[in-house]
């Protein structure tokens, strides 16, 4: 293989004002901020929510469509509704569940739901929209992962694994869809102040062997989130692979992402694991 090819990033046709953009989980936090920014950029925006009739803070210019990623029938109906509105040029797979608990105590039904919502649901929705995007010959798919997908943290194993899984899908499928003008990118946010802590699902035996350390980690995790950067800052990062002619496979923002990723290239993995633990009182 030639050196030029080795260092090349696929160049893609542009997407922009007037095009259709889909943002899953557009009623709160990162998804809401991204939907608002895409409207400002001139996109026609479809935002998903589990309760389209009950959206409190409706954004002018966003069409709300029902989607429960835990329900395959809802995903099928959502994709049909989106395609009836047009062919998406942008798909931001943002919706997600934040789950915590000691590995030993995670219930099987909670694991299955998390992987359906955070991984299989996004894969399913993307598969249903890709044929139209491929026929159009252009598009951008952005998976919202988490820096924990790259830097694992104790008591977050299921969430870490779901975010690493979605990154794996995106990084591998990237090569498959590039010849059709479609970019696949993973964006990994660090700690973002969206109020997500209040919506976290937790599974722990309060009188079990892990309860004390789990509680300590969770308190620090929630404090880090409340002191995190804004959802608007993350939304601006989501826009980077959408605007770029040559979107990168991976972007990250918050929690000193540039330092963390640079450090991880030069120190042993155990050092990184220790740093992440220490940042969470473990
Ligand atoms: N906040 C952080 O510190 C942080 C850090 C790293 C990564 N992330 C990731 O960034 C993404 C957004 O996080 P956020 O903090 O903005 O969360 P958020 O404020 O809780 O918003 C989550 C969105 O997802 C939707 N949603 C939740 N469960 C769903 C389901 N089963 N099916 C379909 N939609 C569902 C919600 O919409 P409805 O309730 O209207 O259905 C809501 O709009 C998530 O993937 C999260 O894992 C967040």
Automatic annotation (TrEMBL):
Pfam short name (any one): adh_short
Coiled-coil annotated spans: none
GO MF: oxidoreductase activity
Signal peptide: none
SUPFAM superfamilies from the UniProt entry: NAD(P)-binding Rossmann-fold domains
Ketoreductase domain boundaries: 19-190
Keywords noted in UniProt: Oxidoreductase
SMART domains: PKS_KR
Database matches in CDD domains: 17beta-HSD-like_SDR_c (cd05374)
InterPro entries xrefs: KR_dom (IPR057326), NAD(P)-bd_dom_sf (IPR036291), Sc_DH/Rdtase_CS (IPR020904), SDR_fam (IPR002347)
Superkingdom, taxonomy of origin: Bacteria
Gene Ontology cellular component annotations, sorted alphabetically: membrane
Similarity field: Belongs to the short-chain dehydrogenases/reductases (SDR) family.
PANTHER family: DEHYDROGENASE/REDUCTASE SDR FAMILY MEMBER 7B (PTHR44196), DEHYDROGENASE_REDUCTASE SDR FAMILY MEMBER 7B (PTHR44196:SF1)
UniProt name for this protein: SDR family oxidoreductase
Source organism of this protein record: Corynebacterium meitnerae
């Amino acid at each position: 293989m030639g050196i030029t090819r080795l260092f090349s990033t696929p160049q893609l046709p542009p997407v922009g004002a007037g095009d259709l953009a889909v943002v899953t989980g557009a009623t709160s936090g990162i998804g809401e901020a991204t939907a608002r920014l895409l409207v400002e950029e001139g996109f026609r925006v479809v935002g998903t929510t589990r309760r389209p009739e009950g959206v409190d803070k409706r954004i002018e210019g966003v069409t709300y469509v029902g989607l429960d990623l835990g329900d395959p029938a809802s995903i099928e109906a959502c994709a049909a509704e989106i395609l009836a509105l047009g062919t998406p040029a942008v798909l931001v797979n943002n919706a997600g569940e934040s789950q915590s608990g000691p590995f030993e105590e995670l219930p099987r039904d909670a694991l299955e739901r998390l992987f359906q919502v955070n991984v299989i649901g996004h894969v399913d929705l993307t598969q249903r929209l890709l044929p139209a995007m491929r026929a159009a010959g252009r598009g951008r798919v952005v998976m919202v992962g988490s820096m924990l997908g790259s830097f694992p943290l104790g008591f977050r194993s299921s969430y870490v694994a779901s975010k690493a899984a979605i990154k794996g899908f995106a990084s591998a499928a990237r090569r498959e869809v590039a010849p059709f003008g479609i970019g696949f990118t993973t964006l990994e946010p660090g700690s973002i102040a969206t109020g997500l802590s209040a919506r976290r699902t937790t599974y722990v035996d309060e009188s079990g062997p892990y309860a004390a350390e789990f509680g300590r980690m969770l308190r620090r995790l929630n404090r880090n989130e409340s002191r995190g950067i804004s959802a608007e800052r993350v939304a601006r990062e989501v826009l980077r692979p959408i605007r770029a002619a040559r979107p990168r496979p991976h972007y990250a923002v918050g929690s000193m992402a540039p330092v963390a990723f640079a450090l991880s290239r030069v120190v042993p993995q155990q050092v990184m694991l220790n740093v992440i633990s220490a940042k969470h009182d473990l």
